[in-house]
Amino acid sequence: MNPMHTSTRFRTTALLLGLCLAPAIRAEQGILTFVFGPSSQEAARQSAHAAAAAARHWLQTAGATVELRRAGSPDAQHIGAAMGAKEMDQAFNDTALAAREADPPSFLISLESAAQTAALNPGVRIVVAALNSPPFSSDGERALEHLAEICQDRAVRVLVLDAAEGAKSVPNAALNALTVKTGGAWIRQARALEPNLAMMAPADESTAPPAPAALAQPASAAAEAAAPGAIPKFEIPVHIRFMRTSGTGSTSESIMDREADFGVTVTGQAIGAYPVAFGSAEVSYEANDSHQPLQGLVTVESPLNALKFDIDDNTNTYQAHARITAIVRNAKGAAIWTGRRDVNARGPKSKLETRRQGSMFFMRAVSLPGQGPFTLEAKVEDLLGGTTGVIQTPLRVGRNAPGLVATDALVVRPFKGSADKFEADQVLSYDGEVLCPVLNPVFRAEEPIDLQVYLRLYPDIHGAPLDMSMEVLNAGRVVARIPLPFKGAFASEARDGASSEVGGRVENITGAEAKEFPYLANLKGAKLPPGDYQGVISIRQAKSVIKRLVPFKVVGNAPAQPVEVAGLPKTSSGPHEDVETAEVVLPEIEPATVDSSGLKMRLEEQKTLWDEAAKNAMGYLDRLPNFRCTQETHRFTAPLKSPDQLKEADSFKDALMYEGGKVQYQRIEINGVKPENADLTKTGVAARNEFGSMLRGLFDTDTAAAYKWAGRSMAMGVLCQVFEVEVSKPKSNFVMNIGGTREHVAYSGRVFIDEETGMVRRLTIQGVGLPKENSLQSPALSLDYGMVKIGQNDYLLPLRSVLQLRHAKAFVRNETVFGGYRKFDAETQIKFQN
To answer: Cα-flanking dihedrals φ and ψ of residue 678, to 5°?
Structure first.
């Protein structure tokens, strides 16, 4: 008898027995959260079915909480006990399928958000991660280590459901360590989920989360404890801001009673060793519901020129290494949310001066319990230079009115890919262009001001037109009032099926009427004397009024002077003049428009980045170490008339060995069994071009690919420059084998290039022009590359590929996943015999 099979059956029996003997899960025992990540279609289906069944069991006691999340989305869906079984199954299935193609960084962000939200609930706190474990980079492994610390301190248990085919998955070391440290479990079979959950919920479990001493103490005490006797140095400027993205309505008072109550910006003195910025207080008419969660973006900004850069003269490259930590504390000083990210800035030495002109950003979506009060805290550590920057500030948000909601307003600027370092799970974008928050906007008095303010509006789409204006205040006095035209129509065919995008997500649509209206106001060309200013944006709809405040500073040695705009007459605003009636002239505010020409890559920049990507692609294989991995392919088919009704036809698993620049494949499984025991009568379409051949062919000068810049987009957790490409048939490197005949296929597609490294992160192509008599038509291929840790270093390697086409009267889709990357060193042993 096989002892391994015996052991598996024994454990399964024990778990099923544990389900029967385990105490019933009480309502006060807390929250169960499911996070779905990348997986195969069959694994997603099995995991979703098991998770829905477990959720129904958990909700049998009134008051229990279940949340549903997926990689790539910061939102959580609340699953209630009143939801029908069919509806619940559909919700879980849709979520699992939507997460299948997510990248590892987005999965880690969603998992962290789920764990930190669970930590705020009383009682048992369990997070189930359902996925086929992808390989992680060094940054990913550090993120999992940090998450394990958070879960340990706050009694959150993590279970990983990795329902790989045949239940033969090898636990990912970093994910498995997370389950071990948190008292969770690694589950290989979907049917074992419920028994494991029952074992995770003992009856005597504490109903209140512990207050971890390390996180609950004040920031200054934590810093002193980290280095006893040391005098901390705070040489790195750092800023933190919370941008509210949604909220409930409130009841407003008469605007005439609160016209002057705009709030102020206060600069505080250092408390101990910590500089404190009190931020800005905005008009609040009546507080929002204090029981509703506060959702928004925690954003940290710090200049890159404050870091130490190491230069390698041998390779002509630079490198900087920093760590950003963001904390939200409640009124008692306890940390209720913590985010941490290591930031590695590296690149060619020739681009160092450009990099020094940028900033590093950390942006993470969070959901906080109630409306506060909360305190924001940020810390930036230069891990090469040994310097630190820390800041604390109260969390301030704008309030909303009945039927009228707006996000907090942010000063923004165009993202500079060659300079900025962006670490985020969401991206602010407008008209397809990425924007960076400017948390400490400072302008020079000698130069014209270019002030861009971004917010999103959620008006009553059936109500009165919006009336918007902006006032500029200096030292509490109104310098000027400027109207902000709102030209967007609430019901517009042009907006049918579209809205603004945040992190690639399109949302807030009701039929053909957009509910979300992004707004970007540009204040260009004004010259203002030095001083502290506030721009106060007033948004009115019928009787509802809300205000948003954006402080900014003007510095320089220019003497006090009238407000001046190029091409317009000067106006006086002396101290004895009534500024309420003076003819103040400021440049026009440009609502909902962006000068795209100023944001696009110049032709010479496009060529430089393309040439760098080509150089990397042509030498890609030469930089890889010797390694081994697995390549698992699942082939699905469906009728042409219903391509969404895919059914798995077969599957293959290969052992892949890369050594000395050559790739070797060995078939180890067919449909879950060894090749010698498999039915080989079935054949299908296969592709083996992921390890550099497709990229190398695309960038080969003989291919003569035509390219043009298309914009920016996130790919595999990295903000990339996107190029559209076209390759003609005579020079195409996309080749189909049809009945033993090689057919070159013309294609077009998109290439996603990481501007910092010049490496391709994603490639999508669509073949065209095949002869009609061929049985294969409309081939399409996508390749996703991510950073994978092999040994002690990270390498860019394929994580997933999808090939789909029409074969005769069927639709065929091949999904290939790579995993189990490990270093391989060839060794020669010589043995001597007596």
So the answer is: -95, 160
d(CA 769, CA 766): 10
Is this structure's pTM higher than 0.90?
no
Where residue 643 falls among pLDDT bands split at 50, 70, 90?
confident
> CA angle 390-312-617, nearest 5°?
100
CA angle at 12 for the pair 6 and 14, rounded to the nearest 5°: 100
Residue 167 is predicted with a pLDDT of 43
Contacts of 568 (CB under 8 A, 6+ apart): 585, 587
For the chain, the C-alpha Rg in angstroms (whole number) is 29
Pairing of β 428-430 and β 517-527? unpaired
- Name the band, by pLDDT with cuts 50, 70 and 90, for residue 770: confident
**Residue reference for tokens 């190398």:** 696
Chain-centre distance for alpha carbon 140:
13
The yes-or-no verdict on residue 263 having pLDDT over 90 is: no
Identify any residues that bridge with 339 across adjacent strands, giving them in sequence order.
Answer: 326
The angle, 0 to 180 degrees and rounded to 10, between the axes of the packed helices 138-153 and 173-181 is: 10
CA-nearest of 532, 377, 514 to 457 is 514
3-state secondary structure of 106: helix
**DSSP 8-state code for residue 289:** P
CA–CA–CA angle 761, 764, 766 (5° rounding): 165
SS3 at position 77: strand
Q: State residue 807 phi and psi, 5-degree precision.
A: -120, 105
Q: For strand 662-670 and strand 375-382, is the pairing parallel, antiparallel, or unpaired? A: unpaired
- Stretch 810-823: mean pLDDT, rounded? 87
